[in-house]
Amino acid sequence: MAIDTSNLPDSLKFIYSHLDVRTDFAGYSGVVITDVDEVDQIRYIVRKIRSNNDEKISLLPIILHTSLKTLPSSLENMVDLLISDLVSQGMQVADVVAGIQTAIQRMAPIQKATRYEDHVLTRALRFVYTRNRKTLNPAINDDGPVGYVHSFLTQFMDREYSLDQYDMLKLALREGLFTSEFVDVIYLCNKCHSGALMYREACPNCQSTHLVHEDIIHHFPCAYVGPQQDFVIAGQEQDLICPKCDKRLKHIGVDYDKPSSIFTCQKCDQRSQHPVVVAKCCTCLHDNPVEHLIKREVFKYHITAKAVHNAVQGTIFSMDNYINIPGTLPKDVFQVLIRQEVERMKVAKIESHMAAIELVNLVDLFNRIGPDAQTTLLTELINVIREGLKSVDIISIENSSIILLGLLERKHDEAINIISNLIVELKRLVRDNYKGFEVQINFNLNKLATHRDAAEQYRSLLEEKTKA
Ligand SMILES: [Zn+2]
Ligand SMILES: [Zn+2]
Ligand SMILES: [Zn+2]
């Protein structure tokens, strides 16, 4: 089909089908997807472009020329402009392409990242910068299973709908790249992380969902209380007869009432006033007791000055700088030792703890002092912590604002004391060396439990909110 492109900038690449993404995009200033109305195909094309290893291609402005009236919400952060007419909207296309290309030219070349998280976050930040976005809203996911999707980020990820998006966003938040505003909460299957769940009441004894609901009747004259079925006599179903005093029940509210109800399981006959709620996953069919669902908070994100700075400089936000700080263990080694400690606790009568110390506003200080001084500061902080611990205790840096401690063979009081003293010392160190900067320190201290998986305890330590 012939397209009138007289109002459009030169150097736009036209894509007419998902098969066209195999062609070369080099040298173009933007992409127009036209005549593709299948949302899946549009998404496929956009993802192919965004995942290109050459950033000049992955950041190309994408214009969608379509009969669709609105963009599906999951495509919102991915496509730059939706138009219905190439001729009359030509100027609009030109403006969008020029704006994005100008921003791209302002950025220094992107640095090579070794870690996947750094790679994805840096690319996402540069995308956001070139689109001049200040606030990033999560979109209801109309396509995959995870409830909400943060397309500005996930379009650069290998798997669009994985739970990793939440971990990465948390990382970015802790690094001071975003500030956040609460939007919603989602619950996901603990086996496959799908958010497509069916909630049902089930028998607490056998988990069967085949429950019959019955009212409980309280007969005032004799004070008998029992399920309605007890008041029904075969052959006289139209009446309710009290099984204790044999009187016929007259009027609800006068001689009897129904104070509550009860469930009877049709499989095991167990009666219960409190059935459990289970969520069946529509993706993998696993029945999740609701208290075991994975919970994630969903936020909208505001871009910080630090994020803009990193995007323009092409610097990789990275934890790699911190892993070689003397006296600390790499995260994976720390986790192995915690697992061993849990095993040891099963045989020895000892008590051990794991703690997270969060230096809440350290990011503000980091922003002021530059990357080299950051490493020096962290090294000093670790020295102070090391001095306050026994040699068997272990330290690991989770990220630049959270330090993890394994306090081995300590009673709870002792562990609390150690943490309180450390907090005083750490605050003093920062105040004395950084012109009175008051670092805000929160912590979370958990006793290691022998009945819980070590990795799960590690996760929940980080997920629970730290307290001041
Ligand atoms: Zn049952
Ligand atoms: Zn009675
Ligand atoms: Zn599942």
How would you describe this structure to a colleague?
The protein folds into three domains: 12-181, no CATH class; 204-274, no CATH class; 319-463, 2-Layer Sandwich (Alpha-Beta Plaits). It has helices spanning 39-50, 55-58, 90-106, 116-130, 151-154, 164-174, 305-313, 331-347, 362-387, 412-433, 454-463; strands spanning 12-15, 30-34, 62-65, 81-83, 135-136, 139-140, 148-149, 178-188, 197-202, 211-219, 224-227, 256-265, 271-272, 276-281, 287-289, 294-303, 353-359, 394-399, 402-407, 441-447. With 468 residues, the chain is an alpha+beta fold. The strands form six sheets. Strands 1-2-3-4 form a four-stranded parallel sheet, sandwiched between helices. Strands 11-10-12-13 form a four-stranded antiparallel sheet, with no helix packed on it. A four-stranded antiparallel sheet has the order 18-19-17-20, with helices on both faces. It has eleven helices and 20 strands.
Distance between the termini: 66 Å
Model regions low in confidence, pLDDT < 50 over at least 5 residues: none
What is the count of DSSP helices, taking H or I runs of 4+ residues?
A: 11
Going across the biggest sheet, name each strand in turn.
1-2-3-4
Question: What is the C-alpha radius of gyration, as a whole number of Å?
Answer: 30 Å
Sheet of most strands = 4 strands, parallel
Shape: flat
Bound molecules: zinc ion
Helical proportion, percent range: 25-40%
